[in-house]
Amino acid sequence: MEIIKTYSERNAIKVIAFAIYFSQKFSSEEINILIEKANKIDFFNKEFDDKQSQDEVAVIFSPDGVQTKQQTTSGISYNKLNDNNTLQWSLTINKDAVIITCREYSNWDNISLKAYSYIEEAFNLIKKDMNISQVTLEYLDEFEILTDSSNWKKLLFKKDSEYITSHIYELDDFWHINQGSFAKLEKLDKKLLDTININYFSDERDNLRNKLNIRTQHTLPYENIYNKNLKGIFDIIHIHSKAIFEKIIHNDILNSFNKGKGQ
Description:
By secondary structure, the chain is of the alpha+beta class. It contains 6 helices and 10 strands; from the N terminus they run ββααββββαβαβββαα.
């Protein structure tokens, strides 16, 4: 009997996200100019199926205390759909970040190259001296738990994993683990902040199915202008993230993937 179902046959990755944050925000005028430039570029019109502007509302108080609301454009989001008309890729450019998400993960080589091509196109719209404050790589892995037996935890997790609190093996109810720490990796100048969120819950959006989500986020201070070294940085963070995942998940499940985590 199947006890644990991974998000896909190739891996457990539901979403992967690449984010690059700016040191200073664009003004509303700068965002509008950026969107106008993007609307004239064939790449954005041909690559994506639709686009949606992002708006923000500011509350302004006059000297006499009168409150007014002002709505401005804060960014734009481009969406690419698959053959089933569901979201596959998204590219968001807003006042303080460029964010790429993929919801159909295959392997790192293919996905990272695609993501980086989107990042390059986005930065072709942005002034070259725009400083970056940090970069983030985030994975959301998902498992569906098909049994009420507590034995599934021993089948899913490595024995004595440093990322799993031991008392969860005694629980019959839902639970949550949230932890963070800094890691100093040899090829990175700054310390990397790892935030690992493990959540066993009933998914209200999916017929109350019991799910186990592992959200692994890695944030690196960057403090530089955009350059092509970012791809190498994301590669290093990815290898580090994979190592953490493999310290959590049982080898039997890893071996069912193509080289573990869909690599």
